[in-house]
Specification:
SMI1/KNR4-like, 295 residues, 4-stranded antiparallel β-sheet, globular, 3-stranded antiparallel β-sheet, 10 helices, alpha+beta
């Protein structure tokens, strides 16, 4: 029965995971590729969430929930002949898409909140790095992925007023409560999640300090399907080819230059030319008589 169920969801699984399950199953040492099939979210549940939080879900995220209420895919590697969990790809369901930094119902007046622990150094946004979110009432933040305790991937609304066309972004909040921009749309983030195979701490590859040495070893063994070329271009200047192709790759149809052959010289003259020069050459105006050796 389980094999028939897997066969029935195989086309659906390949479409949802962009074929990454076949890549993982073909990778050396990978075992127990597990995918949790979930039913689509009810439309009234999405409407209820939007009314409760006074914001509208992005259209691509709403379509995702109408196809599957969340996403969960894990895979392990063989370590001493035993499976060890390694990769995890998670997107919370609509019911677990909870607001981050919301004040609790019962709280003491002097109790600290996440907004009190937030970095107070405000940085102005630019085209490459938008303005950072805030954990207070200036932003609406919802947790998409708990990242296994290594941080949180969040859906961020910077405009807290109810809007018809939502302006949302995807950000990563690390364990030190620093924000790092990931993507502008949920679809772009979903592709990053799949192409990085859910490797541990893969979100830190989009930070200024990068992934840990231990996680880098797993990256070397199971490389992501795609590379972050935009981040690499920021860290290092792009290589500019200054070579002139017209000078390097010259045409082969040029007129050949014919070399004239010199007439062959007699053997005696060649020996005279190749012999060593005399130690005392005859100077101009001096006697040309040679001194006979004494016997």
């Amino acid at each position: 029965m389980e094999e028939k169920a897997l066969r029935s969801i195989k086309p659906y699984l390949d479409k949802l995971t962009l074929g990454v399950t076949r890549i993982l199953e073909a990778s050396p040492g990978v075992t127990e590729v597990m995918f949790v099939e979930k039913e689509p979210a009810e439309r009234h549940a999405i409407v209820s969430w939007e009314q409760k939080n006074a914001c509208v879900l992005p259209e691509d995220l709403k379509n995702f929930y109408l196809m599957t209420d969340g996403f969960c895919m894990t895979w392990s590697v063989k370590f001493d002949e035993n499976p060890m969990p390694l990769g995890a790809m998670t997107i919370n369901s609509i019911s677990n898409l909870s607001r981050l930094g919301a004040p609790p119902v019962y709280n003491l007046p002097s109790a600290p909140t996440l907004a009190d622990l937030e970095d107070t150094d405000e940085e102005e946004g630019n085209e490459d790095q938008p303005e950072k979110p805030h954990l207070d009432s200036r932003s609406l933040i919802f947790e998409l992925d708990p990242c296994g305790g290594n941080g949180k991937v969040c859906l961020v609304y910077k405009n807290t007023k109810p809007v018809v066309s939502p302006d949302s972004e995807i950000w990563f909040l690390d364990r030190a409560l620093y924000w790092h921009f990931l993507t502008k749309t949920f679809t772009a983030y979903y592709r990053l999640l799949i192409t990085h195979l859910g490797l541990p701490q893969w979100q830190y590859a989009f930070t200024s300090y990068g992934i840990s040495p231990q996680a880098k070893q797993w990256f070397n063994m199971y490389k992501p399907i795609t590379l972050n070329t935009e981040q690499r271009s920021e860290e290092a200047e792009p290589f500019i080819n200054k070579l002139d192709p017209s000078k390097v790759f010259r045409s082969k149809n040029k007129t050949p230059v014919l070399k004239k052959k010199l007439p062959a010289q007699p053997l005696s003259s060649q020996k005279g030319q190749t012999g060593a020069a005399p130690r005392n050459p005859v100077q101009p105006g001096s006697s040309s008589k040679r001194r006979e050796p004494q016997t």
